[in-house]
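Bug #77: duplicate submission created two jobs. Keeping one. Sequence:
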Amino acid sequence: MLRTLLLLLFIISFSKGQAQGILDISGEIVFPFINYYSAYGMSHQSAKKSIRFYEKLYKEEKEKDELSDEMRLYALIKEKGLLFNPYIIVRGSLDEVTIVYMDSTTYQKTFIWNYKEEELRANQSYLWFYARATRLGENAYWLTDFYGIKLIRDTIRPKVVGKFAMDVYRK
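Kept job's structure:
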């Protein structure tokens, strides 16, 4: 009886989580991940300027009834009130791109600013992101549980081409 009750509770909670669009997200963090429609970390003037720019583009495309994917994402983020929230762009194993929005406290826990794209590429490394998130719409998600970021070294990846070109030039 107790086993049946526990199994039933597990199934109900699992189906409820799937119905709400909660799912595990994992993938490689894509650099750079700064877009103009996220004003997180910008000065007040810069944020207002970039949001005005996107608002103008959005109105122009909406009048033509031809919203691009980027403008649909902008409208969704504006509607959800996330214009000033940090986010990370994650590329999954099937090469799909996911944008994970979060609150600033969770962003501080990621320590993402400790990594630089050039250093990662030079060391043939990348960052793998693990989390659980709720689907907002389009390819945007709201982070619910942050599991961690793992530094992975991949010797198959090409090293920085610029250094190779400079060495050839010197010879």
